[in-house]
Write a structure and sequence with these properties.
With 501 residues, the chain is mainly alpha-helical. The protein is 75% helix and 3% strand.
């Protein structure tokens, strides 16, 4: 049932208390279905980022591309697309709803992946990779908001976001293995395999329900207008004049404004960008180590990424264990458990040193007189540290910015993709001049400096959120919603479409 109120002769449609149409009140099965769709689309799109890594020598030979920096482009062009897409798709999903954006972008991703499989030459292939990257960035930017739409409980939402981050890492891990074994048959079949996986994900995706509360209310108002013939029935979001100019000025610039004005987002973006770029740097560094130092074939060197995935799986158990400790502390009314920053950030404090250890490990054990399994096992620490940092900081962003989480995640995705696209170009030159040991050590020292970020957030995070206009706006909205619930039995569920921030 919906609740209406008279405002300037307008009948405003709201959610009533316990309204079954509100995503927070959906059944566990329906929420799990949304979770599954978010995970499956993310696996597809992140798998696409690294899919050609084992196929690049075969693609270069087929198109007559000489050895050089341009062989980095099949992955970097995809990641450059990741820079562009989130700036558009994240904010637009907060205006037009999640379903429309997810469906349309996944359709584009399917088409452009097909284009990669059929590309007649190198420039066309790169153009399709860039376009596929733009489309593939949508789940990375939107799925966090999708989960925030259906899970209002921070514990459950945190677990959903953590699963999302785990599959974000697992997709690229399996890309080199798939292409390493398929590409010797035909590099085009690498993308046909990707299309088969995409096709399986389309089956549940077509049934994705709309999860964004303002869009659901808008559709409800449209249905009531048609049924009653009353043009004065409106959803709250329809009260805003969503002109193209306002959408561009207010909505599409939001991730950029959040990056420059929100200290939490700025330093989160910088730290995640470093970790992300290190991961994609490995697609260039691992062949230098395992093919160059140990003489492992291109087909089997892709297996070197699997320990990273194993490390990520181990971290899922660590996360659940910490989550239980936190909930027990809350039940015991312990003071530290009442602090917002302790809900997520201690995991990042653990993950940062793991990344540093991994970099020094691979740097100083990659020698012909040391068995190849030793540097390969450094991936356990990198996978664990990478996922711990991402789980903690992205969950922290979602908790802090709630309804604006898609824009916050878009800012993060854009920043890390930009560095992830650029840093691999320097890999061969850096490892050639400094050697595997000191090149890896240089990256380790930089990671050591950045690992202080979550510690700073734990100490100064509350005051930073108090100074944030976005966090304060959301706090004001929550207070108004509480008044509405007590006074009229209304639950809004999200901010208006075009708000002051």
């Amino acid at each position: 049932m919906s609740t209406h109120s008279e405002t300037k002769e307008m009948e405003i449609v709201h959610f009533s208390m316990g309204d079954p149409d509100h995503p927070w009140n959906w059944s566990r099965k329906r929420k799990a279905f949304v979770l599954m769709i978010g995970v499956s689309t993310t696996v597809n799109c992140t798998l696409g980022s690294s899919l050609p890594s084992g196929a690049i020598p075969f693609i270069a030979k087929d198109f007559g591309v000489p050895d050089g920096p341009q062989l980095v482009l099949p992955i970097s062009m995809f990641l450059i697309g990741y820079v562009v897409g989130p700036l558009v798709f994240g904010p637009l999903s907060e205006t037009f709803g999640r379903r429309l954006i997810m469906m349309s972008t996944f359709a584009m991703f399917t088409i452009f992946t097909l284009g990669c499989a059929l590309a007649p030459n190198w420039p066309v292939f790169l153009a399709f990779r860039f376009s596929a990257g733009i489309a593939a960035s949508s789940p990375v930017a939107v799925v966090g908001g999708l989960f925030a739409d259906v899970y209002n409980d921070p514990v459950t939402r945190g677990r959903a976001i953590s699963l999302f981050m785990a599959v974000t890492l697992m997709g690229p891990v399996f890309g080199p293995t798939i292409s390493g074994f398929v590409s010797p048959v035909s590099w085009r079949w690498t993308f046909w395999v990707g299309l088969i996986v995409i096709g399986m994900s389309w089956i549940p995706l077509v049934f994705l329900p709309e999860t964004y509360a303002p869009t659901i209310l808008k559709k409800r108002a449209q249905a009531l207008r048609k049924k009653k013939g009353d043009p004065n029935i409106r959803a709250p979001s329809e009260l805003e004049n969503a002109s193209l100019k306002e959408i561009v000025v207010v909505v599409l610039t939001r991730p950029v404004r959040m990056f420059y004005t929100e200290a939490i987002i700025l330093f989160t973006c910088l730290y995640l960008a470093l970790a992300y770029s290190l991961f994609y740097l490995f697609f260039e560094a691992y062949p230098i180590v395992f093919q160059g130092v140990y003489g492992i074939s291109a087909r089997f060197s892709g297996l070197a990424f699997l320990p990273i995935g194993v490390g990520a799986i181990i971290v899922c158990g660590i996360f659940l264990g910490y989550d239980k400790i936190l909930q027990r502390a809350k039940q015991q009314n312990k003071q530290w458990a009442k602090t917002e920053e302790y809900r997520r950030l201690p995991l990042a404090c653990l993950g940062g040193p793991c990344i540093v250890i991994a970099l020094f490990w691979i740097g100083w054990t990659s020698r012909a007189d040391i068995h190849w399994i030793v540097p390969m096992l450094s991936g356990l620490f990198f996978g664990a540290g990478f996922l711990l940092v991402f789980m903690a900081l992205l969950n922290y962003l979602v908790d802090a910015y709630k309804a604006f989480s898609a824009s916050a995640l878009a800012a993060s995705s854009c920043t890390r993709s930009l560095l992830g696209a650029c840093l691999p170009f320097a890999t061969k030159a850096m490892y050639s001049k400094l050697g595997v040991n000191w090149a890896s050590s240089l990256l380790g020292f930089i990671s050591l400096v950045m690992s202080i970020v979550p510690f700073v957030f734990i100490k100064y995070g509350p005051s930073m959120r108090e100074k944030s206009k976005f966090c304060q706006y959301l706090l004001q909205q929550e207070r108004e919603d509480t008044v509405s619930i007590k006074g009229e039995g209304i639950v809004e569920g999200a901010e208006s479409q075009l708000d002051p921030v």
